[in-house]
Design goal:
Layout lengths: L2 E8 L4 H13 L2 E7 L15 E2 L5 H8 L4 E4 L13 H20 L4 E7 L10 E2 L10 H18 L4 E7 L1 E3 L13 H11 L2 E4 L6 E6 H13 L5 E5 L4 E3 H15 L5 E4 L11 E2 L2 H5 L9 H15 L2
Parallel strand pairs: 1-2, 1-4, 2-3, 4-5, 5-7, 6-14, 7-11, 8-10, 9-13
Antiparallel strand pairs: 10-12
Helix pairs in contact: 1-6, 3-4, 5-7, 5-9, 7-9
């Protein structure tokens, strides 16, 4: 039975937010209130849903979004991008806005506030085996800003009746619910676009670095479990079970390209250097203890993304 108290999903047009919005709505288990910065046309599966449209920095918009909500899933913050570096002003603004949203949520009897953070908070600690208890050592403005938001939310949770859950999400990829051109700068998205348009998969590094990946389907399944179940307040790592060498990821894309697009691109690197990289492992022990399993097969989502890229860019 659907609850009458909605789940507010901020950033519901984003990479992760869009897929979570779709999954929660189509599951039909709860009332979902999406929040968008700008107006957009909702697809058929969202018929009857009334979104909140506007900037969450605006007091009126923020309170309209929170009215009557039982749970907030906050995704209206920027993801990491090596191509489009954030400004310090923009990052500070995100901290202020998130803090205001959480404080207003607590004052208006929101029961749970779930923030999707990033594994970038670990920084130099991203070595060896990393789990929920690993102490972050952020090394970039973006990472420090995510940690500052986490600390602010944890403080709010400790001083109010609102439960705060923080999910440190690893790198995700997959077909977006709402088209976003910037997504094609992400590693696997870029490789899939290359596969759809050329006969080469060119890595912009020497291919020896490591990246933990989780498909968007698996990530959103886990987030939806956290949203709909009584997961205790705290900070959790949400990562894939496998950390890949970049060259290994390109080879998976190549194999799927052979099967899906019936072509066999070469895998190449355009940077040759002697940088030494060490494999690391991410362990989502906290979520596993809550019986939330995180899938590890990235091939099916890559196949879907290849089809999407071919429809969008292929000839």
């Amino acid at each position: 039975m659907a609850t009458q108290q909605p789940i507010l999903v901020t950033g519901a047009a984003g990479h992760v937010g869009g897929r979570l919005f779709h999954q929660l709505v189509t599951a039909g288990l709860q009332v979902v209130r999406p929040s968008f910065r700008h107006p957009l046309t909702l697809p058929g599966w969202a018929a009857g849903i009334t979104p909140v449209v506007g900037d969450l920095r605006d007091d009126h918009i923020r309170l309209s979004a929170l009215k009557g909500a039982a749970t907030v899933v906050h995704l209206a913050t920027r993801g990491f991008s090596a191509i489009q570096q954030p400004t310090s002003e923009g990052l500070q603004e995100e901290l202020i806005t998130t803090s205001a949203l959480a404080r207003d949520a607590a004052q208006h009897n929101v029961r749970r506030f779930i923030f999707i953070s990033s594994i970038h908070v670990f920084g130099d600690a991203l070595a060896g085996t990393v789990n929920d208890a690993t102490i972050p050592l952020p090394t970039s403005d973006y990472a420090r800003s995510r940690l500052a938001i986490e600390e602010e939310l944890t403080s709010i949770g400790a001083n109010t009746a609102m439960q705060v859950v923080i999910l440190r999400l690893t790198n995700t990829f997959g077909v977006p619910t709402f088209a976003r051109h910037a997504l094609w700068d992400l590693l696997i998205h870029d490789l899939c676009r290359q596969a759809a348009t050329t006969d080469r998969l060119v890595l912009s590094t020497n291919g020896t670095g490591y990246r933990n990946m989780v498909s968007l389907s698996d990530a959103v399944n886990a987030i939806a479990e956290v949203v709909t179940r009584e997961v205790p307040a705290g900070t959790y790592l949400l990562a894939g079970p496998t950390t890949y060498r970049l060259r290994e990821i390109a080879e998976v894309v190549k194999t799927q390209t052979q099967q899906v697009l019936r072509k066999s691109p070469t895998v190449e690197v355009n940077v040759m250097d002697t940088s030494q990289h060490h494999r690391f492992a991410l362990q989502s022990n906290g979520l596993l203890q809550q019986r939330i399993a995180i899938g590890g097969d990235i091939a099916p989502e890559i196949a879907q993304l290849l089809r999407y890229a071919h429809d969008k860019f292929g000839h």
